[in-house]
Amino acid sequence: MADTRRHRPTTVTITGAGGQIGYALMFRIASGGMLGPDRPVRLRLLEIPQGVAGAEGAALELQDCAFPLLTGVDVSTDPAEGFDGCNIALLVGARPRGPGMERADLLAANAGIFGPQGAAINAAAADDVRVVVVGNPANTNALITAASAPDVPADRFTALTRLDHNRALGQLSAALDTPVGEIRDVTIWGNHSASQFPDVTHATVAGRPVHEALAERLGGEAAATAWLDETFIPRVAKRGAEIIQVRGSSSVASAANAAIEHMHDWVLGTADGWTSAAVVSRGEYGVPEGLVSSFPVTAQDGAYRIVEGLSLDPRARARLDASVAELDEERAAVRALGLL
Predict the structure, then answer these.
(1) CA 84 to chain centre
(2) Up-side HSE of residue 91: CA atoms within 13 Å toward CB?
(3) Is 211 designated active site?
(4) Gap between the Cα atoms of 181 and 274, Å rounded
(5) Single pTM value for the model
(6) C-alpha to C-alpha distances, 32 to 7, 39, 260, nearest whole angstrom
(7) Which of 43, 83, 77, 37 is nearest to 60 (CA)?
(8) Same domain, yes or no, for 141 and 262?
(9) Per residue in 305-335, pLDDT tens?
(10) pLDDT at 46 over 50
(11) What is the C-alpha to C-alpha distance for residues 107 and 138, in angstroms, rounded to an integer?
(12) End-of-domain residue from the set 159, 188, 215
C-alpha cells in the first residue's frame, strides 16, 4: 500500500461542484485518479446558493465512500473560503449562453463569476496554485480570471482543450481501426469553440504519419485530405453539440475525464509526445501575447511548456489564424466592457 504520509494534503477546489461535471470529478479525485495513489487530498466544493444542496449531498456520499486519500470536504458559497489555501482549482461553474444572448452579454455575465474568483485566488490561494477553466467560453474566462489575480503568475492559468484533444484521438482511432494508445502528437490549436483547429500534421500512428495511414485506408492523399477537412475537423469541433443532440444534455464524464488528465499531466508530467492545453501565449506561432490559446504542450517539473518550432503549412496557418482572430475579438469585447 502507498505511504500517503510523505505528502501533505493537496487542497482541490471545484466550482460548480453541485453540477454534473463537478459530481463526476470529485469521486475520481478523492480516489487518487488525478494526483496518484500516494497523494492525500482535501476537497473544497464551491457553489452558488441554489447549488449548495447538490454539493452537500455529494459531500455525504464522499464520506460514505471512505476514501483513504480524502482528508476532508468543505462546502461553501464564499470564494474567499473556497479558495483558501487552494493548490488546484477546477473552475467548472459558468453562465451558459441563453436564448437571445449576445456574445458581449455572455462575456459580461461570466466576468461577474470569474473576476471575483480570480480575486479570491489572488488573495487566498496557495503559492503553488494551478487553475484550469472548464466553464465556457473557457479561454476568455481564463483570461478574465488571470487578469483578476495580478499577483499570481500568468502561467498558472489554463483553459481546457484536453477534451477536444481526446475527441480527436477518438475519431482517428475509429477511422484507422487502431487503439488510441498508438496515436501520438495530435494538436488542438486556438479557441475551445467551433473555430478550433484539430491538427494531425505532425501526428503519428504506430510510428507512421497519420496522413499516410489515412491515405492508405481511404484510397489516396486527396481522400485523406477531404476526410480531414470535411469530416474530422468539423466533427471534433462540434462534438459537444452532437452529444447534446443525441444525449439530450451536454458532455459530463468526458469533460471531467479531460480535466483530470489535464491536471494530472500538469502536476506529474507528460509521458512520450505532447498533448494540448490552452495556456497564456507569449507570442508563440504568431498568437498575440496574453491570449489564452490552445497549443501543443508538454509538462515537466510542474509546468506546461509550449512545443515550439513546428511547421505550419498555409492551410494550417489559415485555420489557426481564424481561431486566434476569434480569441482576439473576445478579448477586445471584454476590454470594451472595462473588464481587463
Answers:
(1) 22
(2) 36
(3) no
(4) 13
(5) 0.95
(6) 13, 7, 10
(7) 43
(8) no
(9) 999 999 999 999 999 999 999 999 999 999 9
(10) yes
(11) 11
(12) 159
Q: For residues 156 and 129, is the Cβ–Cβ distance under 8 A?
A: yes
pLDDT of 1: 45
Task: Enter the DSSP assignment of 301.
Answer: T
CB 272: neighbour CB atoms within 10 A?
A: 7
**What CA–CA distance (Å, rounded) separates 307 from 276?**
10
Choosing from 7, 165, 192, 262, the catalytic residue is: 192
Q: How far, in Å, CA of 271 to CA of 188, rounded? A: 18
Place of cell 509550449: 306
Mapped onto helix, strand or coil, the DSSP state of residue 322 is helix
Q: Other C-beta atoms within 10 Å of 242: how many?
A: 12
Cell of 260: 483530470
The predicted pLDDT at position 339 comes to: 73
Mean pLDDT (whole number) for 93-101: 79
Using a pLDDT cut of 70, give the percent of the chain over it.
Answer: 98
Which of 140, 159, 178 terminates a domain? The answer is 159
- Note whether 123 and 218 are same-domain residues: no
Q: What is the mean pLDDT of the chain?
A: 94
d(CA 70, CA 66): 8
Q: Are 144 and 243 contained in the same domain? A: no
For residue 273, the tally of other CB atoms under 10 A from its CB is 15
Q: Are 215 and 123 part of one and the same domain?
A: no
Is residue 225's pLDDT more than 60? yes
Residue 284: DSSP 8-state: G
One-letter amino acid of 228: L
In the structure grid, which three cell numbers stand for residue 262, read together? 489535464
Residue 191 pLDDT > 60: yes
**Angle ∠(126,255,180) on CA atoms, nearest 5:** 115
- For residue 295, give its domain range: 162-332
Region label for 7, one of left (φ > 0), alpha (ψ between -120 and 50) or beta (otherwise): beta
CATH number of the domain at 317, please.
3.90.110.10
Residues 108 and 242 in one domain: no
Please give the single-letter amino acid code of residue 195.
S
